[in-house]
Amino acid sequence: MLTAAEVPAEEVPAEKSNASVGSVDSASSFSRDAAGRPMATTVEQVTPHLYYGKRQDDRDLAFGMALLTRDTLPLWEDFLFGQYEKSARALYDLVPAKEPPAMEAYALRKLFGLIDLENKDGVRAGLCAFRESLRIFRDYSYQPEIWIVYALSGNEINPANPITPEQFRNIEMVLTVLTSPKFTAHMGIARTVYHEVAVFKGDLLNHKHLSMAIHGFAARAMKLRHPSLVWMLTSPVAKMVEIIDKALLSEAKRGEEMPDIFAEIRSLAEYEWFSRHSYLLSKSGMSTHVIAIEALTGQFA
After folding, report:
1. Sheet of 171-179: strands edge to edge?
2. Residue 287: which of 267, 264, 257, 265 has the closest Cα?
């Protein structure tokens, strides 16, 4: 089976189909209040455990950030492990008995390339890092301050309300934020199997350029909670490195370029949580990036 990355450019059909994956609402409209005025980008605290945000040009997209607690850990474990089942089910249910038309075949290869958890270039890396964050929270007796950040697709979801299992399919992208007063670590960013399958079936829309927006929203929300925050750490995969470097130009520094930062991190009470993350602080072979929170907040606008 070809993954999305293996599909030659000349095989991509020129015409559109209802079965296309990654379709985007290109005719994006501005969100408006009751008087029809454009609404500004906003990030607000709903409760001490929940923040939400919305950009002025998002019609069917919102962002949320929920504190991971002992009570909500089972919910997010179900969210995580349910994607493994959803991936297997999609790979089983969606393969047609006969060779489909070209556009549908391309859409299937693209979907399968993304959600196949054996494919290291799909959602797999993000899910593994997301799992690590949940594991650290459990192993340290629910003590680390970890937040789940998500982009919500669809008009029917109120981002000011907590997530329920029925809304898993509306979570288009997710990441975890390990937190300390001066540093955060953004780990486990990925699109979700739930949402990609819903998009393929035509139930929801896919949105472009989400990764930096969700990083930016997380930075803005965390800055509200911890005004003293200065730096964000992340160990991105190669594709995410390209996205970060393009979006922030010289603002993103690799950890080895900033040794004083790592000396400061090691003095934190939370350092042990950070250091136990299998995909953070260069243990995995991926370079840890250090990004100024102030630079990152501008990505959510």
Report:
1. 42-47, 50-54, 61-67, 146-153, 171-179, 183-191, 231-234, 289-292, 252-254
2. 257
How many whole angstroms separate alpha carbon 117 and alpha carbon 123?
A: 7
Quick: pLDDT tens for 268-283.
Answer: 999 999 999 988 876 5
Query: Tens digit of pLDDT for each residue in 189-239?
Result: 999 999 988 988 889 999 999 999 999 999 999 999 999 999 999 998 888
**Phi, psi (deg, nearest 5) at residue 161:** -105, 150
Residue 25 has pLDDT above 50, yes or no: no
Scan for tokens 């959803």, then name that residue: 86
**Are residues 300 and 217 in contact, defined by beta-carbon separation less than 8 angstroms?**
yes
pLDDT of residue 102: 66
Tokens representing 174?
Answer: 């997710």
Q: How far apart are CA 31 and CA 167, in angstroms?
A: 22
Six-digit token string for 218: 């997380």
Q: Give residue 18's region: left, alpha or beta (phi > 0; psi -120 to 50).
A: alpha
Tell me which residue has tokens 């906003």.
42
Tokens of 128: 């593994």
Task: Quickly tell me which residue has 């196949």 as its tokens.
Answer: 116
- Neighbouring CB atoms inside 10 A of 275's CB total 12
Rounded distance between C-alpha atoms, residue 66 and residue 82, angstroms: 19
Nearest to 151 by CA among 118, 192, 121, 112: 192
User: Tokens 């009751």, residue?
Assistant: 34
Residues β-bridged to residue 252: 291
Cα-based torsion angle of the residue sequence 225, 231, 233, 237 in order, rounded to the nearest 10 degrees: 110
Neighbours of 219 (CB within 10 A): 26
